[in-house]
Amino acid sequence: MRTARSKCAASPMQRVATATTLRAVLCWARPLLLLVFLGTGGCAQRPGPEGLVVVRAEGSPAATVTVEVVTNREPDASTGGYSDRRSSELTFERFTI
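^ thats the sequence. predicted structure below, dont judge the formating
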């Protein structure tokens, strides 16, 4: 008893040929799509100055938070911050934000 084959069923050779053709198309299509996406990104408008306007928040004021930090960098006396040099000991600081 024979079963009817679907018209969509392809022979193994046709499947190999289709896969090879698909790989060939993807080989040149990927860089092309990348260029299209990067190129269209340059068409977007830049945000205007209204994007940088400071708006006062409504509601209750935020709570203060104490942050404790540790660094192994040497203090820099000229700037009041820290230099890029390593210190031999750790420095602890506490900030209330």
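The chain has two domains: 11-43, 63-97.
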